[in-house]
Amino acid sequence: MDYRMIKLACYGISLMGLDLGILHAQSSSTTPRVVVQTGARPVRPQPYAVQTTRSVYPWKTHITSTIFWVGEQPSGRNLTPNCKSSWDTQWAINFGGYDNPDPAARIANHTTGEFRPKAFVPKLNPFYVALPYNDVLTYKEHKPEASRVIPWFSRMAPRPGKTVLKGRWLQIVYGRKYAFAQWEDCGPWVTDDWQYVFGNQRPKTAENGAAGIDLSPSLRDYLGLKSGEKVHWRFVDDAQVPYGPWKKFGGAQAQAKDLVAQQKYLDYLRQKRDEEFRKKPLGQ
């Protein structure tokens, strides 16, 4: 893949649609169709992606989304502050500050791929979501159904009370746009709705139009949506996440740099192998 193609992929242009399965929405007034491409057509590899066996998780369609942010203070019927998350007691500190949702206080640049608050460079990924389930009861205990309902639980074999949800990647689709984000908190409203998050039920809460996913301001700006609008989402494995604005800051940035370093090292090893091969006389 040449530099121009990688650059296009970085800024969200759909070069990877045939691998990730794109939802095509006809309009806001009609029912969108989920089109998952099948067949033996060759798949273009992601830049620097680790090729592994991929799991295919079902789409959650027409889910009402709301906007939330790190450092959000309680207001109205929302009594939960977001200085802490369900899994990080110092979420705002670890993030780097208040993730101000005011558009005037934000950078939203599709050319550079920067979607973040103006006041500081975030230390964590600003593309984050909350879903209404928490897999742990205490720091020593999982919920009784967690090992049964979470598809990747047994594969991760966590110690008691260690979450297997924090940092999980999702693909989110709004109209003809898509983005990727990491699961960093629980909500909206409830934290026990595994039947929706991992099953085939609709969100059980009736609040905010039966909201089923909270989106960060960076996701709002990148996708161009408003609180209360409907999206489609699904879980994806790490290897299915292409490089983009969602890997520009924080831990995701470090992961992306690690993959680049691994790729360069593999290229170096191949070069040395080829040099040694050329030195050998014919017949050896």
Characterise the protein shown here.
With 284 residues, the chain is of the alpha+beta class. The chain has one domain (58-277): RlpA-like domain (Barwin-like endoglucanases, Beta Barrel). It contains nine helices and twelve strands. It has helices spanning 3-10, 17-20, 91-95, 146-149, 153-156, 194-197, 207-210, 217-223, 250-279, and strands at 23-24, 33-34, 60-67, 106-109, 114-117, 128-131, 136-138, 141-142, 169-174, 177-186, 211-215, 230-235. It has a six-stranded mixed barrel. The radius of gyration is 21 Å and the shape is globular. The two termini are 34 Å apart. The relative contact order is 0.20.
Gross geometry? globular
| Integer tally of domains | 1
Q: What is the CATH superfamily classification?
A: RlpA-like domain
Total strands: the figure is: 12
- Number of helical stretches of at least 4 residues: 9
The biggest beta sheet reads: 6 strands, mixed, barrel
Q: What would CATH call the architecture?
A: Beta Barrel
Class based on secondary structure composition and strand pairing: alpha+beta
Helical content stands at 10-25%
Cα-to-Cα separation, first versus last residue: 34 Å
Low-confidence stretches: 1-52
How confident is the prediction overall: mean pLDDT?
A: 80
Strand order of the largest sheet: 3-11-6-10-9-12
The CATH topology is given as: Barwin-like endoglucanases
Please write the string of helix (H) and strand (E) elements.
HHEEEHEEEEEHHEEHHEHEH
So what's the CATH class? Mainly Beta
- Whole-angstrom Rg: 21 Å
Strand content: 15-25%
